[in-house]
Structures are given as C-alpha cells and as structure tokens.
Amino acid sequence: MSAATVGTGIVEEAVVGSKAPRGGLNRRAKFAGKKLSSPWASLAAIIIALVWTTPTVGLLVTSFRPEADIRSDGWWNVLLHPTFTMDNYQQALFGNQTNFAGYFVNSLVITLPAVVIPISIALLAAYAFAWIDFRGRNLLFVAVFALQIVPIQVTLIPLLSQYVDWGINGTYWTVWLSHTMFALPLAIFLLHNLMKEIPPSLIEAARVDGAGHVKIFFRVLLPLLVPAIASFAIFQFLWVWNDLLVALTFAGGATNVYPLTVRIAEMVGSRGSDWYLLSAGAFISMIVPVIVFLSLQRYFVRGLLAGSVKG
Amino acid sequence: MLVVIALFILVMGAILWLVDSSSKVPRWAVITGFLGPAVLALTFGLVYPGLRTIYSSFFNRNGTEYVGVDNYVRAFTESQFQIVLRNTVLWVFLVPIAATLVGLIYAVLVDRTRFERIAKTLVFLPMAISMVGASVIWKFVYEYRPTDRPQTGLANQLLVWLGLDSRQFLLNQPQNTLFLIIVMVWIQTGFAMTVLSASIKAIPEDIIEAAKLDGLSGLGMFRHITVPSIRPALVVVLTTIAMGTLKVFDIVRTMTGGNFSTSVVANEFYWQSFRQNDKGFGAALAVVLFVVVIPLVVYNVRQMRIVEEIR
To answer: Is 0.80 topped by the overall pTM?
Structure first.
C-alpha cells in the first residue's frame, strides 16, 4: 500500500530539506558550490522562474488597470502610464451581469460540506478497516483502494439520470453527493494507512479500560489523526473549489448553484474579450486556493501527492 | 449549507450512539454502523454507475437499441474522432515529458541555493489554482491583435518585437494543440519539481562523494549519478502526470471549447454525452479513458513500491 506512505515520506524530506539542511546536506552543499556559481545555471533557473511567473503577473497587473488602458495596449506598458483602479473588481464582484460575489458564496456553499461529509464517513470506515476484525475485511479494503482509479467520467451519465429521477438535478445536493462519493476511496485509503501506524498498544489499553469503539475513536485516535485529516481536507478543499467537470455536469443550467469556476469558464466563451472582468474574476477565484496554499504549504503538498491518482 | 452539515452530524451521531449505546448490540451492527455509509456511497456513486456506463456503451444514443461495438468502432475510425485521439496521444506524451524535464532541470538548478524555497514556491504555485484560472491566464498571453496594432497579448508582442507577424495561437491548426499543451505543462511542472527535488536530496552522500573522486561534475554528475539514482521517482512522476493529463478537460473546454481540432477524449466525452446527448457514444469514450488509465496505474503503483523500498 504505497501512495500515501510514499507521498508523506517524500514530502517530509522536501520540507525538512529545504528549510534546514541537516549535517549531511551541509557537507554536500560545499561540493555543490561549484555547480551553483555557474552563471549559465543561474541564468537558466531565472529564465524558468520568469516564464512560470510572468503570465500570472501580467493578468494580475491587468486586473488593476482601467478598462480603456487594457484595450489600448499591453500590461507591460503600465509603467509608462501607471493608472490603477479597483473598478474591475467592484464591477466583477457586484455588477449585475457578473455578480462574482454571489458565485463566490456558491463555491463556499458547495465546498464546505463536500469536505466535511466525506472526511467523516471515511474516518468511520477507516477505523473499521484498521481496528475491527471481520470476515472479508481485506478483500473489501482492496476493492475500496482499487476504486481510486475509476475516472469520474465513467460515472457521470448514470449519476445524472439518477439525480434527474429523484428530482434533485440542479441543486447543491447533487454536487455534494457526487464529491463525497468521488472522494471516499482516497480518503479511506489515506486515513486507514495512518490509523494503522498508531501503536496497537494504545488501543488495547483503552479497551482494557472499558472504552467502546466510539470512545476509542474520539478519545484516542482522533487527536492523533489531526495532521492526516488536515492534509486530506486541504486536498479535497482545493479539488472541489477548483473543480469544473462535476459542477458543470450536475449544476448545469442552474445558475444559482454555479461555482466560480463554471461561471468563469462560461464567461470566457461568451465575453472572451472583456479582460477587465475576466482578469478580476480569475483572481477572485484564485485568492482562496493561493492563501490556503501559502499558509498550509506543507499539508498541501502532502495531500496533493497522495491524491495524485484521483479523478 | 450549515443546515446540511448539522443534519449530517446529527445522522452520524445517531448511528454512533446506536452502535455504542449498549454492549448487547450485535457485532454485525457495529460493523454496519461504521462501514455502512461508505459502502453505500461507493456502491451507488462509483460501482453501479461504472458498470452501467460500460453496459450503455454498447447501446445507441438513448439506450434503446443494442449496437454491439459500433460506438467503439466509430470512436476509432471516423476522421473527426481520429483527430481527437491524435490530440489525446500528443497530450499524454508531451505533457509528462516536458513537465518532468523542466521540473528536473529546475530542481537541480535551485537545489541548495539561497533562494531554493521561494524559487520552488513560484513554480509550484500554478498547481494550487484551478485549471480554469490557468486557462484564463494563458488565454490572455495568447491574445491576438493584427500586427500593426498595439499588442495586448504577451506572446504576440514577443513575435512583433522579433519582427514577425502576430498569429492566432489558438485558432491555427494543428499547432494550437501544442499551445494548449503548454498550459498543462506550466501547471504540472511544479508537481514534478517537488517530487524530484525530494528524491535528489535523498541520494546517498557516499555515492556522490565517490563520483566526485572519480572526477565527475556538472553534466556528467547529472547524467551518471543523479538521473539513474532517481529513476523510479522519474517513472512515478511521468506516469502520474500522464494519468492526470489523460483526463484533462478544463483547459480544452475553457480555451477553445474543443473547436479548431483541439478536442481530446475527456472533452469529447462531455460534448457527446451532455451537449449532443449521445449517451451511448459518450459512454464508450468514458470506457476508453478507463481502459487506458488502468495499465498506467498498475505501472505507477509498482514503481511507487520501488521508491518506497529505496528509502
């Protein structure tokens, strides 16, 4: 059982390594000195870093320029006539036609339950897989693990017709339910692996003290699992926040349910040259993931690695 | 939303309370309480729809008539879908190779420099934002204006500065697919860099010192020591990115809508299933995705094990 453990190990290394080189690394750093001082190497690194950041910076600068300026010349001319405005954001957030503030709320309303619900269900299941013995346990667990690889495309048509039958098509329920179901294999797998790492003696001791499963679960395991839950929660949060396919399929046509991604994708098609709105809108949708990423980088990378097979 | 979360917590609480309320509760009830919600959700959300989709891929557009393998034959022989397949193959090969190459070079270049942390963050950031956001950023880079007018898109401005004519990056076939692929490479490079950087840091020191004594440095070191040492990690990164790329939908959908011969299987699936309402054909495309992803996953998991053993 590999993905989660490998992912965790790798990232631990990356985080520790980049923050504070340990003894061995220090000695190696001396050797590396020669290579790093090569001007060509530095130049190459700077070029890559520039290519990777310039497109974003360009759109960010654009989002603060007046509409007329955006139309008349490129953002790199901003220093020639530096005029900045918040109008684009004002217009994008609250303008009648865009109303991104409303879609921002939709994104939140979709995302929070779609994170909380699968984690709770997965915690229960992972506990049972890790600490309750029953016949067929391993078989069932492998089946859950294998479900990780099912592309969600395979499930969309039957699910949609089921939702239509139930009459919940175009409501938040469809999106919550779908994200919950798609998240479970990874969540169960990840949490199970980490639960297994907790020493059995701890559980035994609690059992001897007369604690039932529920008590063990809440008193003993849950506090130890907080980092693992955080990793998965962040992964799932960003997955749902950034998702286009699921929302587009199930909330299709119901504009009062659309998250930001769906609305922006739609606007690129219908008003593709209104860059003053698109640029502001794009950054409104990016601000949350970027904050989450910068503040919780460590958990984020860990969850991302573990979840790389998903989808 | 809050109501839903509260409701959900209430239901879960009830299950737990019932399971735990007395010691007379039979064992199977405990197990059902813990595993029931997960198994139910997975069966309804993944297993049943998956089987259902495979089944309906052998039927006509509204599932009324059995057509054998006609849908598959159509997907592989009609010329418009052969373009889709060609594009998908291009994506699945070019994105992993380019992203891994750039990620590896960058990881080596910034390894143990003063700016390592910030340099890595810059390249990793595109992984945090949505593909819709990334598409907006790059669509702005590719923005077209006739050569004699002031340019607003950075890519065309560069062409004009070099004395060339501006061009329609997203319209001119067949190169437009390559310009879409660049967006995915831009997103995935951060992933490759992070994983590979961790592997590079884990290369045992004695190997490096021995190589130094043998007179290796710079490129020789890179080719004979670094690359062979991290080969399993390289394979994991390549296959992981390939799996993600196979299902790419957001970028194509947002930037071109699959027009101008840029469609890929995942986008065509959406288009056929939900816009053309050809459920049978859509299902066949989803199954194709599923079948192609399986060997990738198997290979990926195997290599993960090797990475794990090495550490």
So the answer is: yes
